[in-house]
Amino acid sequence: MYVLSAAEAVSPALSRTKHLLFQPFRWGTYLKLCAVAVFTEGLSGNSHFNGNNPSFSHGGPSFSPPALSAGLIAAIVALSIVAIVVGLLVFYFVVRLRFALFDCLVHQTTSISRGWRLYREQAGRFFVFNILVGVVYLMVAAAAVLPFIFRFIRFYHDSHVAGRFDFGEGFSLVVPFLPVILLLIFLAILVDLVVRDFMMPHIALENAPVVEAWEAALANIAADKGAFFLYAVLRLLLPMVVLIGLFIVLLIPMVIVFAIPGMMIAGLHAALTDATGPLLVFGTFLEFLIGFVMFTLGLFLAVGIGGPLCIAMRNYALLFYGGRYQPLGNLLYPPAQPAPANAAISPA
Question: Which terminus of the chain has a lower count of CB atoms within 10 Å, N or C?
């Protein structure tokens, strides 16, 4: 396989995606592969940051932490442990499926079970490495953010004591905090690209230790910095452009499909305010049924539309890196077999 630039890898990535999903097209296969792709690529690639801004008022009441009993503390600790364990199990499942999807895309096969079995050891090692990377990242993020957190806490306390909110001082605290957040986001994206797009093929195909895979990926990046930089830019921009285009095209149909059932649910809910007996039971069931249909339809659209995009982007990563990593390139485009040297020569 010859080396593809970041721009040249787009077209063959789309062609491989079309071949895998639509030639031939089977609904079961399509939904299976798209669901795996969305689960392993789409969900893990989205982050949502929610924050609550405290409000200040003159002479506001003071707050004291509620008293927690020993039993409540034990329950909170137990639930936290269960949540961590469940989260780790789900993430392990995601990592195993990433290797299964990798096998499907490299070999153009629709069997998830083959890659699930084949890369069990590699996936386990990759899972542990990802956990360690996540812990290190959280430590770095905490070290970068804590000084600002202490300043915000002190500012909150001073504002509460003074009974007024100084917007100028608050703005002066926020401005230097924003570049730190942007830098942390950029670092997370960069590490994720190196780990998933460039390290993973070494671990899967050569069963390479994570340190060797990391060094090999960095060496390839250092050998062609410009191409990898353009790849990183397109890797981030292409999905955004596609999603914006889909949003514009599907905006009106989605409003019609989801707004009408939503208004039906709101109308039913209002009508059932004073309802009792069988009417309340039937109305509640009808609300649930409409909501379930909307949820199922939304999930179907997310998988059916987001799945091909996720698969295309993963193909894009494989094709770009395949030209710079020969074992992967040879699997994506097997080299032509030379003709036998002792082939019989037909008489003239």
Answer: C
Express the helix, strand and coil content of the chain in percent, nearest 5 each.
Answer: 80, 0, 20
Rounded Cα distance between 117 and 180, Å, is: 42
CB atoms within 10 A of CB 262: 14
Question: What is the DSSP code (8-state) at residue 312?
Answer: H
For residue 329, the surrounding DSSP H or E stretch is helix 326-332
- Provide the whole-model pTM: 0.78
Q: Where is pLDDT greater, at 150 or 126?
A: 126
| Residue (of 21, 13, 15, 48) closest to 234 by Cα position | 13
Contacts of 177 (CB under 8 A, 6+ apart): 148
Which tens digits make up the pLDDT trace of 308-333?
Answer: 999 999 999 999 999 999 999 999 98
Residue (of 312, 334, 224) closest to 12 by Cα position: 312
Bond from prior residue into 253 cis (ω within 30 degrees of 0) = no
The model's pLDDT over 267-280, given as tens digits with 9 standing for 90+, comes to: 877 777 777 778 77
User: Using omega within 30 degrees of 0 as the cis cutoff, is the peptide bond preceding 209 cis?
Assistant: no
Q: Is the pLDDT of residue 162 over 50?
A: yes
